[in-house]
Please model this.
Amino acid sequence: MSEKQDNVVVRFIKNNSIWVALIALVALVTILTEIKTGQFFLSLTNILIILNTQSIIGILTVGVMFPILSRGIDLSTSSVVAVTSVVSATLVSKAGAAIHSPAKPWPAGIVVIVCILIGCCVGIFNGSLVAYTKIHPFIATLGATLILKGIALIFTNAAPVAGLSKTFTYLGGGKLIPRVPNTILWMILVIIIGGFLLTQTRFGTNVFAIGGNDVAAKVAGINVERNIIKVYMWCSACAALGGVMYSASTGAGAPTAGITAAYELDAIAAATVGGTSQTGGIAKISGVICGILILAVINNALQGLGVSPYVQQIIKGLIIIIAVVLDMRKNAKKA
Amino acid sequence: MSEYILEMTGIEKTFPGVKALDNVDFKLKPGSIHGVMGENGAGKSTLVKCLVGLYQRNGGTIIYDGEEVNFKVVREALAAGISMVHQELSPVPERSVMDNVWLGRVPMKGIIVDKKKMERDTQELFDKIGIDNIRPTDKMKNLSVAKMQMVEIAKAVSWNSKVVIMDEPTSALTNREVEHLFKILRDLRDQGVGIIYISHKMDEIYEICDELSVYRDGTYVGSYSTKEGAPDYIDMNGLIEAMVGRKVTAMFPKVDCEIGETILKVENLSSGKLFRNVSFELRRGEILGFAGLVGAGRTEVCETLFGLHPITSGHIYKDGVEIKIKSPEDAIEHKLGLITEDRRGKGIFGLLSVSRNVVVSNLKKYGFPLRHAKMRKDSQEYVDKLSVKTPSLEQKLMNLSGGNQQKVLVARWLLTNPDILIVDEPTRGIDVGAKSEIHALLTQLAGEGKGIIMVSSELPEVMGMSDRIVVMHEGDLTGIIDRADFNVPGGDAKLLEYASSSKKSEGVA
Model:
């Protein structure tokens, strides 16, 4: 490249603006926390808390970045969390043991696989609607959201499912590495797989192409429909894992898991703040990691600083809008 | 007062990594039509965008109507009397013609829009510039592209413009529509308006322009007259040389290739209402041209062969074996390639890198996980082979010029190594240099024993390049003409006859 007018530092900041924003945010928050509470924001304990609370949303974010990249959206992730949370919890509780022979809770590994398969089915449903009926993904996944919400409530009679097996709760709450809750490891695993899919596989390349120009993608010989279905399968599978993690880390399945806190919106926000373009065709896994961290830091810091939950919402909303505006301006300049 | 309405001198414009304009001049007299010529990437569009305030220049002065100006936004330029008709129109389709003309500045009567005045003003405007086939109350979406363009021109004139910029105005027009457009432009000129006319079409430039300025690689080459006998007259060959910077020897480097056995046979192919009962054969080493007017169904035939429209009846045989094509995947499987007419809409991935654009149809080749090194190596090979001008393989394709984007598309299909390559308007909107390179490439591919189907609306191109020409009219195949029959003086008359009438020639079953 022959860019010469900017010096190295300026160019670095321009190309990594989102990371610079994260660092600035962390610096600001560290100072504020120090002044207000006298506690060190960047202590290992606090970092682990931040990551742990955000890990399920992080998993959802890596999932939902794919539909967004393909110029779609998936609103149903939190409902998938709810369904898989209650299904997994039921299978590893007394109720699950009753339909297992011999009568004991289902093995944790099998439960994870079952839930991911449920996620895949939801994805096939969403993806087929989007790919073949050309319903706008917003509407298609909105429909799925309501259906799944209903299923989760009926399945449990709207009551939480408790009494989960130890092996299962270890998946989320256990610590394979001392002090590090396992959900964080799951999030890292999902990020690695997501990044791999995005950059190292035919599928990922196809999704970039479809998001950028779906007609051209078709002409180029890409099976657009099949890839769209895969996109939503991946997204819902991630959400399903998120649901399992919810039950495994909290020790109970909840039919409103993820729904009351609107995980799906936080995930979309994190992906967007991380530079995944709503107009399709632009995404980076490093950006999405950064987006997850930015939202995590905001959530944690606002709480730590004692900001009221209502005000938190307002601040989060503003930050998301600002991030997207800045990002769009950046992309518009490049065009 | 100077004799010029507009004087741009020493204009500089840099984009990150590129100097788009380097000390460029442009001078326009009132009451003249001034052609702006140059290859893609020469800086023509950048120059006019600097003028109207779409871009901010880095240096140079613009003197308009005797005063130095510096437009920050398009509206300022419009208010001052400089308007631009863009290549790509952006009408509001659901609104009326008059709404479109007065968009953003509708006449008011108190707080109510004065529809009567709006209609009257629009009609006056149309009368003034000789538009007689559009009513102010017509809905925009019901107009043809040509009429929409005329509305755009009317809109430009409605600002009482002293300078009107036309960017490639004829690329989507038929010959008759072009004539009407030219009449309007001449009328405007005679009313004292200075017109800046950007185009790639040589014959047009000579027909409509009084003067022209040539640009190359962001620099100013010179200004000339198009009137024979004038001291600074430049002929077409001289103009091409000025634009390209070297002599372009043959416009259509047609080499007679050995014509082999039939590779593709199409029998009574129909696709719904798009076209009916089209039959033809394509042989190895042959370039089969497709001619016809806009709406003849040529593009639709190509797209159907490539699986983009459903086949409602008929058969396709490749190497004597019937094949079924339901999707582009099937077509690629059977070793067909298609370069679409609509490059931006159906061809390129603007946001993706040059390298990705080259390999996208061939990803199977690169395994799991993708072998990036091999992808880069292959794309580099074809980028070099086709001399695509790009700063790097990682450059986003949208930052390349049209000609280079087209070459990247050619590279994509060469990488799949097709037996049959279908090219639809392969040189539309491409400068002469890249054009002759693409022609040479098609000839070379035919020489390698591939079958080429080439749709083109430019008669010289289709007649210069084809071994045989299929002519279509409103969804029917009206004739197939051999090179011996059209490559003679007056050969184009026969072609036009087939193209404009549904009368079938004797040779067609």
